[in-house]
Write a structure and sequence with these properties.
The protein is α/β, with parallel strands linked by helices and about 230 residues long. Helix content is about 35%, strand content about 25%. The protein has two domains: about 1-75 and about 155-233, Rossmann fold, CATH 3.40.50.300; about 80-150, no CATH class. The radius of gyration is 17 Å and the shape is globular.
């Protein structure tokens, strides 16, 4: 579904992403793990068109999307749940969900999607007229996920969904990620909570200073002594 080939990304003179390649197959959960500054978020932003590559190619369903803009990628079936939630604070829950569906032309079908996201996130239904900026961090994370789902993505990019959340909410968010995947959405997950990410993923890539240093089935990496020492405590 997604193929990244030998991409290089620079911030000025800083070589942030150094010729990395990886792939995500349809129906998988694939996670990128690594310390702060490893390049995880930069990779997501590059895939979603927010940052341009210096070289290399990115393919989505065999279509070259290397130079595609972000709004076009939403129309091609990709959505991103950004780091830090980035909800529209002065809009209601309902209005945030409507913004998630902005690229769709089938407004008569929206009710089915509202029902779907409210089924997954009952608290959002209770708060659909509440301003997003007045909600808790956990509720805002749920809203960011629900907003992305309103575009009916085939591929969902998720950037640090557990950041800043209480442990009980982290469990809830990861359970929901698994549920979303089971309904047919492919997921590329960036996450500092390596244990949680590896426990739900099919495969994983380990990043260090812009390089992939290890990859394999997530369960194998979960039991790897080097990974345990570096990322699992």
């Amino acid at each position: 579904m997604l193929k990244v080939e030998d991409i290089n990304v620079y911030y000025g003179a800083i070589h942030a992403i150094k010729g990395i390649s990886f792939h995500v197959e349809q129906g998988e959960i694939v996670t990128l793990i690594g310390a702060n500054g490893a390049g995880k978020t930069t990779i997501l932003h590059t895939i979603s068109g927010l940052i341009k590559t210096a070289s290399g190619k990115i393919w989505l369903n065999d279509e070259n999307i290397t130079t595609a803009s972000g709004h076009n990628l939403v129309e091609k079936g990709m959505a991103q749940v950004p780091e830090g939630r980035r909800v529209f604070a002065k809009m209601t829950v309902q209005e945030n969900l409507e913004m998630g569906a902005y690229s769709r032309k089938d407004q008569h079908n929206f009710q089915a999607d509202y029902d779907m996201v409210f089924d997954k996130f009952p608290r959002l239904k209770e708060r659909r007229k509440q301003l997003a900026g007045t909600m808790s961090g956990g509720e805002q994370q749920m809203l960011a996920m629900a907003r992305a789902l309103m575009s009916r993505p085939k591929l969902l990019l998720m950037d640090e969904p557990s950041m800043g959340l209480a442990p009980i909410l982290v469990d809830e968010i990861f359970s929901t990620i698994v549920e979303i995947n089971k309904t047919g959405t492919t997921i590329l997950l960036v996450e500092q909570n390596a244990h949680k990410a590896l426990s739900i993923a099919n495969r994983a890539y380990v990043l260090e200073t812009g390089n992939i240093i290890m990859s394999g089935p997530a369960k194998e990496l979960l039991g790897n002594d080097k990974i345990k020492e570096a990322y699992l405590g």
